[in-house]
Recover the amino acids of this structure.
C-alpha cells in the first residue's frame, strides 16, 4: 500500500494541502479528481517523494519515508513512478528517445536492453528511438515517458493528467499499456485526471475507488 496521511504543503503563504490523506492499493487503480488548482499535482509529487511535506506521513509498503531526512534512497524512490502531464518538461532535450527511456536503467547500473523491449511495447520504432524530443510528437514523447516510468518495475505508478492534450487513440494505447503492466505486475496505479469518463473506465475493472481532493480535509 502507498499511503499518505495528514499531508500539509504550503507554497509561501498559500496552504495548498491542509492535512489530506490517500491510499493506493497494489493491483488497483485509484482515481484522484478535483478542480484545477486544488493540489492534485502537489499531492502526486509528495507521493512520488519529490516534494517533502511540512507535515504528514508517507509510507511505501509499510516503510516510513520520514526515516530519511535529507535524501530518500534511489531503491525506495524507484518504487513509485510519476508520469507528468507535459512530457517536454520532464525530459532532457539533448537526449534521444532511447536515452530518455534508458536513463533510469543506466543510473541503476542495469542493462539497457530492457529499454528497447519497453519501447517496442509502446509502439516506438528504432528509427523514432534515435530522434530527440523536438523531432517527435507529444504523443510519441509521452509513450517514451511511460516506457521510462516502467523500466525499474515500480510498485506504484502515478499518472498526473498523463493523457491530457493527446488524441483519443494515443490515450487509449497509453492506458491499455498501463493496465497490462498493472495486471502483470500487481502494481497500484493512481490516475489523476479531469476526465470523469476516463476515470470511471480506468478505475472500474480493478474495483478501485475515486477520491475527490476538494472533499478531503480543507486547506486552511
Ligand atoms: N512550485 C510552486 N510554487 C508556488 N505555487 C505553486 C507551485 N506549484 C503549485 N503551486 C500552486 O499550488 C496550487 C495547487 O497546484 P497543483 O498544481 O497542485 O494543483 P492541481 O490540482 O494539480 O491543478 P490542475 O488540475 O490545474 O493541474 C495552485 O494554486 C498553484 O498555483
Amino acid at each position: 500500500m502507498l499511503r499518505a496521511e495528514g499531508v500539509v504543503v504550503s507554497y509561501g503563504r498559500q496552504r495548498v494541502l491542509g492535512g489530506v490523506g490517500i491510499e493506493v492499493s497494489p493491483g488497483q487503480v485509484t482515481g484522484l479528481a478535483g478542480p484545477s488548482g486544488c493540489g492534485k499535482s502537489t499531492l502526486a509529487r509528495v507521493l512520488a517523494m519529490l516534494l517533502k511535506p511540512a507535515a504528514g506521513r508517507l509510507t511505501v509498503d509499510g516503510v516510513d519515508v520520514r526515516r530519511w531526512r535529507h535524501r530518500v534512497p534511489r531503491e525506495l524512490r524507484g518504487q513509485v513512478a510519476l508520469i507528468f502531464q507535459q512530457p517536454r518538461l520532464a525530459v532532457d532535450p539533448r537526449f534521444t528517445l532511447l536515452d530518455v527511456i534508458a536513463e533510469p536503467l543506466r543510473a541503476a547500473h542495469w542493462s539497457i536492453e530492457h529499454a528497447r523491449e519497453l519501447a517496442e511495447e509502446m509502439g516506438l520504432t528504432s528509427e523514432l528511438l534515435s530522434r530527440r524530443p523536438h523531432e517527435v510528437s507529444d504523443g510519441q514523447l509521452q509513450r517514451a515517458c511511460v516506457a521510462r516510468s516502467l523500466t525499474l518495475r515500480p510498485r506504484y505508478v502515478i499518472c498526473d493528467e498523463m493523457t491530457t492534450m493527446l488524441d483519443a487513440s494515443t490515450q487509449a494505447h497509453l492506458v491499455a499499456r498501463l493496465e497490462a503492466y498493472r495486471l502483470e505486475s500487481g502494481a497500484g496505479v493512481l490516475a489523476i485526471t479531469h476526465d470523469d469518463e476516463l476515470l470511471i473506465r480506468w478505475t472500474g475493472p480493478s474495483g478501485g475507488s475515486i477520491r475527490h481532493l476538494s472533499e478531503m480535509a480543507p486547506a486552511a
